[in-house]
TrEMBL record:
<dbReference type="InterPro" id="IPR046347">
    <property type="entry name" value="bZIP_sf"/>
</dbReference>
<feature type="compositionally biased region" description="Acidic residues">
    <location>
        <begin position="104"/>
        <end position="119"/>
    </location>
</feature>
<keyword id="KW-0805">Transcription regulation</keyword>
<keyword id="KW-0238">DNA-binding</keyword>
<keyword id="KW-0010">Activator</keyword>
<feature type="compositionally biased region" description="Basic and acidic residues">
    <location>
        <begin position="30"/>
        <end position="48"/>
    </location>
</feature>
<dbReference type="GO" id="GO:0003677">
    <property type="term" value="F:DNA binding"/>
</dbReference>
<keyword id="KW-0539">Nucleus</keyword>
<feature type="region of interest" description="Disordered">
    <location>
        <begin position="1"/>
        <end position="48"/>
    </location>
</feature>
<feature type="region of interest" description="Disordered">
    <location>
        <begin position="98"/>
        <end position="119"/>
    </location>
</feature>
<dbReference type="InterPro" id="IPR004827">
    <property type="entry name" value="bZIP"/>
</dbReference>
<dbReference type="GO" id="GO:0005634">
    <property type="term" value="C:nucleus"/>
</dbReference>
<keyword id="KW-0804">Transcription</keyword>
<feature type="domain" description="BZIP">
    <location>
        <begin position="34"/>
        <end position="83"/>
    </location>
</feature>
<dbReference type="InterPro" id="IPR039250">
    <property type="entry name" value="CREBL2/REPTOR-BP"/>
</dbReference>
<dbReference type="GO" id="GO:0003700">
    <property type="term" value="F:DNA-binding transcription factor activity"/>
</dbReference>
<dbReference type="Pfam" id="PF07716">
    <property type="entry name" value="bZIP_2"/>
</dbReference>
Amino acid sequence: MSSDTQASTSQMSGEKGQRKTGKRPGRKPVKIDHKAKLERSRQSARECRARKKLRYQYIEELVANREKAVFALREELQTCRQWCREVDSGQVSPSLREKLLSCSEDDTEEEMTSDTEDT
């Protein structure tokens, strides 16, 4: 057989010359220390769990703060409803009178500060 015949015969039989299967050309085999790799994986998992725990603590804190705000607003709404009932019946409770006076004082102070800022 000639060299042309040998080349075509080897190509048809599926041989791939000097190339080894399963390896990439130009790369050296990486020696992996399996114990070190396992320890890195465990450390990464520990860090992930710690981050997750912090994230949940932060979210729980946000929820607790929002719940406190909701309860405070509900209490304020209940107070306002009570004042409305009193005004509808023609009564003004001391707490409502006090609130109205404090609001009018705040408005007066705001007007005074806005007047001084305009000049």
